[in-house]
Every structure is written in C-alpha cells, then in structure tokens.
Amino acid sequence: MTVIPFAGPTAPPRVLHAARRPALVLVAHGSRDPAAEAEIRRLLAAVRSARPELDVRLAHLGLNAPLLPDVLAELSGRVVLVPLLLGRGYHVKVDIPEALAAAPHVHGTVADPLGPDPLLTDALHARLLEAGWAGQPVVLAASGSRDPDAAVDTGAQAALLAARLGVPVRPGYVAAGGPSVAGQVAALTAEGHPETAVAGYFTAPGDFARLAAAAGATLASAPLGAHPLMARLVLHRYQSVVRAPVRLAV
C-alpha cells in the first residue's frame, strides 16, 4: 500500500489584484473660482481616504492644472476615468474619450457621469435640509447643455428628487437650455406657491451656483461638492467598470 503523506490543509485561493487594480482619475470641469477647486480637492481627499489602496488622481478639462492629458501621460496600464459631471453632454461624449484615445499607453474606460443617481437624491435632500427646506416646491438648478441627453438626465434626477420629497421638483438652467431657474421659480409662484426652494445641482461652487441662488427663491441649497455621498458615488462609478479580481489556486 502506498502511503501519501499528509500535506496539511489546502491553502485558500490567492486574490491577485493589487498590481492590476486600475488607477482612478476624477475628471473635473475646471473653474476660475478658487472655492470650486478647493471643494473638488476636498472630494478627492474623501475618495482617497475611503480607498487608500487605490491610485487616485485629479484631472481637469480646462482652467486648472493638472489637465487630463498631463495626468494620463503620467500613468500606465489600466485606468478608470470618472467624470465629475452630472449628466451626458459634450465633455462626457467627446472631450474625455478623445483625451483617452490620445493616450495609447494606457488601457482606459470612461465611467458614466455622476447623474442621475439615487445617491444624488440623498445628497440633494441633505443639502436642502441644511439650507432650511421645509416642504416648499423645488427647482433643480443645473448648468444646462445644448445636448438633449443632458436635459433628459437632469429631468430624471428631478423626478427622483420629487419622489423623495413628495413635492413638485422642476429642472431649471442657468446657462444653455431652458427653462431658466428664475423662470421656474416665477412659474411656481404664479401657481400659488409663495415659497420655493432652489436645489443647487452643481458639483462645486461658482458663478452658476451663485446665479441659481439669486433666482428669487425663498432659499437655495449649497452645491453637492464634497458631501460624503459624492465620494461614495464616485467609487460606485469606478467599481461599475472594474472587473472582478482574478482568483488563482496556489
């Protein structure tokens, strides 16, 4: 009879992921307002704190350094680009993919924009409560875009927020597209709502947020900024395009 020596318990599968974990690049629009850059960097710090094992970078499409091409030039291997944008539009569809295509040394994926999403609903609700919201109808104030898909996305987020709040929520815009934020506030007032609220649907402070806050509503909430749910959402977008770890038996 042949005796096979006992070799001990089988070792558990080893997860090989550290070397293959893609870098995460947060892609911001960029702003001349120092407060906007400071808020985006607070969001960057929150993402890094939540996932310290990741290589997390910040890049801008313009106005601030570092620019996206420069960040991509410093990377190699797999990368995931998460746009810090709240809907589809030219930047998501054209600018970011073109920058990625111009960096053949990286293998990258562009995640979906942040909106619409239930986590944004939670963050918008929290910002409204911080501003003193007490059940008034809401205008969801967005920057606006000439791309019709951007309006669809903003409308979808407005519907999510209306379902959460139980009051009318209408999208309004401060730049491209319409109706305007001020126009929506006036329409709600004409319909018999003497008090209205503006929910700042912006990723950072700046001119657009200030214009929305001055549109005549009773109160206006702060931009989403570095709210903790924004960091969670960024990581959800990252994780949605990262493949599951490869497990190899040893």
Q: Describe the sheet with the most strands.
A: 4 strands, parallel
**Rounded average pLDDT:** 90
Q: Report the portion of residues in β strands.
A: 15-25%
Which percent bin holds the helix content?
A: 25-40%
Number of helices: 8
The best one-word shape is elongated
Low-confidence stretches: 1-19, 244-250
The N- to C-terminal Cα distance equals: 29 Å
Enumerate the strands of the largest sheet in spatial order, edge to edge or round the barrel. Answer: 3-2-4-5
- SSE string, helix = H, strand = E? EEHEHEHEHEHEHEHEHE
Radius of gyration, CA atoms, in whole angstroms:
22 Å
Structural class: alpha/beta
Total number of beta strands:
10
Structural notes for this entry:
The protein has 250 residues and is an alpha/beta fold. The chain has helices at residues 34-50, 68-73, 90-101, 118-130, 148-165, 181-190, 207-213, 228-240, and strands at 14-16, 23-28, 56-60, 77-83, 106-110, 138-142, 169-173, 197-200, 219-220, 246-248. It contains eight helices and ten strands. The longest helix is centred in the middle third of the chain and has 18 residues, at 148-165. The two termini are 29 Å apart. The model is unreliable at 1-19 and 244-250 (pLDDT under 50).
